[in-house]
Amino acid sequence: MSVTAPFGFRAAGVVAGLKDSGARDLALVVNYGPSRAAAGVFTRNRVKAAPVLWTEQVLKGGRVHAVVLNSGGANACTGTAGFQDTHATAEKAAELLGESAGEIAVCSTGLIGERLPMDRLLPGVGAAVAALSPNVGGLDAADAIRTTDTVAKIAHRQGTGGYRIGGMAKGAGMLAPSLATMLCVLTTDADLDAAALDRALRAATGATLDRLDADGCLSTNDTVLLLASGSTGITPDEAEFTALLTDLCLDLTRQLLVDAEGASKAIAIEVVGAGAVADAVAVGRAVARNNLLKCAIHGEDPNWGRVLSAVGTTDAVFEPDQLNVAINGIWVCRGGAVGDDRSKVDLRPRDVTITVDLAAGPHSATVWTTDLTADYVHENSAYST
Amino acid sequence: MSVTAPFGFRAAGVVAGLKDSGARDLALVVNYGPSRAAAGVFTRNRVKAAPVLWTEQVLKGGRVHAVVLNSGGANACTGTAGFQDTHATAEKAAELLGESAGEIAVCSTGLIGERLPMDRLLPGVGAAVAALSPNVGGLDAADAIRTTDTVAKIAHRQGTGGYRIGGMAKGAGMLAPSLATMLCVLTTDADLDAAALDRALRAATGATLDRLDADGCLSTNDTVLLLASGSTGITPDEAEFTALLTDLCLDLTRQLLVDAEGASKAIAIEVVGAGAVADAVAVGRAVARNNLLKCAIHGEDPNWGRVLSAVGTTDAVFEPDQLNVAINGIWVCRGGAVGDDRSKVDLRPRDVTITVDLAAGPHSATVWTTDLTADYVHENSAYST
């Protein structure tokens, strides 16, 4: 399961001592090939952590041999010295694996603005290399990248002819994570070149991880990598591979959503009737980021007025008096005004679906978010202190 | 004090029975001239309440005789019937004042998506007309427009030659109010035409009320009106008038900020070294809307990494490795990396100043916001139920 579900990969998760808790905090994923084709997508934040700047460069070559990931520190806003720390991490892994640092990706997650304790991290890389395994290492790695995640997030799928895709993730949203970073490593033993992997990864994450928006905050460290070993020799139909990868990413998205910090509701905002997919995503994101609505859902209050006021902040194509809104299937707003009886809305279940009909076209998109809770405030008030 | 500080105005605040609490809920401000010149600014939300649609039309004529304001219901997302309710309110006031409804502005605040109880509101207009007074009516009116405001917000200033400006406000932010709407009525006995009032009002609110961003949520009802009676016969220098009006609006902004729902901190985000004022405002607003930072400030945690990650979401001109951040005067981030010792930051006072130096030019702007608290979640989870 996890990143070792496909053939050709080994992984490890060890205790390097970066976390005070003594939990696993350093993961390693190694692709033994024969292919090393890889693709990546990264945070759109202009303030990028050192490992993001490094790994973006690595991915330009379209090849990744190994990924070193650490929790316990984001290595963001750490200046030139922080970048040198990332470089030294890649060099250490390269040395131990007998490779060039130019094919070693690095990911970090944790507090921003603090240097990593390299005297513990570098020995941790050695321990991880020694612990590499083709089976349990996948789960150990998924465990090691957790920060406030209460559970490890893993998934795998099998495609036509038997090739596999596996993956692990931590955090709560690629573009807008809850506490800190979303890190995700996806692996496959299918044989696809870097360009095909890049297309598939952008399509898959664009419709899944990229539409998870727990609190609207954009991390400095978000990274999603896709590594292909090609060890099955199967080159799948690209559309099939993309669909399978999308399904796996949706699975991980769902796991991230239900484990988001302090959340008591998992909210899907389905925008339908849009003039364009971009309009549907923009509306979904505006609704997902509306603190007043997120509070209302937490209070199990079907406050559709807050949905409309969020929709009204976008430049999507719609007419205010044509908008329809359903909450858990009850169309509480029709034609921009009061619709069916709001007392019929049952908001007790954890899963909540808000449907916004823009009545402007045939396109749709779903954005996922959480409610806003006192627990969220508590966890994020007390994080670094 | 309030809207009756200038000559030529009378006001009232009465109990119409719109609020279950039995508190005042209907206000009336009447300009007895000789001038009726007026200007207004409104929410940028595309989903606009009926009174906003009505009052925007009234203001196109550049003249306002009276303003009817109600709390206890926003009359937003109420369709054609809701617009007819606003029209009927204006007609009722016009009839009682012996005027045309075309010079009667209407403002509403409260829950979205519910019709107003016109059988109580229209008699309330009659009671307000009967209660009009040139002194205590100003305070009564300021009291009647409160929703969750714990105190009435009023201010007045005196200019060269003795002309006055007065004002009242409710809510917590024009473009991004906390719970519901920001409503503000400003009055003056100076003699300025509608065009001059419009220029002064846009300049004043653009630098004050428009930069108060409690929770990033954009109301359907926000309205700021400026009425001139011209009764002193003084036509002030426009620059002086604008400065005085700006100072008064800053006073009201400050009152709204410290009374924002559930807030325990009043946060000023001063952006300096910007390439343009628009850049400074964009950065200030991005920082003001970052839930993670707002939680950190609530926890008295000088988490400057969250400031940088918010700055990085904007397209303002800056280089990440040139950014400097001070929290309450301590430069905790220099050159995009760790600066002075964060333990020196004292976050115990209610007032917090976050200074962001973009190191990209001579421009600056301040945006005000609040911390994110469990009380905010509580108040907004339980509002309509």
Automatic annotation (TrEMBL), chains A, B:
Instruction: Report the family membership.
Output: Belongs to the ArgJ family.
Supply the HAMAP family for this chain: ArgJ (MF_01106)
Name a GO molecular-function annotation: L-glutamate N-acetyltransferase activity
**EC main group:** transferase
Q: Does the keyword Amino-acid biosynthesis apply?
A: yes
Q: Give the protein's recorded name.
A: Arginine biosynthesis bifunctional protein ArgJ
Assembly and partners are described as: Heterotetramer of two alpha and two beta chains.
Q: In which pathway does it act?
A: Amino-acid biosynthesis; L-arginine biosynthesis; L-ornithine and N-acetyl-L-glutamate from L-glutamate and N(2)-acetyl-L-ornithine (cyclic): step 1/1; Amino-acid biosynthesis; L-arginine biosynthesis; N(2)-acetyl-L-ornithine from L-glutamate: step 1/4
Q: Which UniProt keywords apply?
A: Acyltransferase, Amino-acid biosynthesis, Arginine biosynthesis, Autocatalytic cleavage, Cytoplasm, Multifunctional enzyme, Transferase
**Biological source species:** Actinomadura rubteroloni
Q: Does the keyword Cytoplasm apply?
A: yes
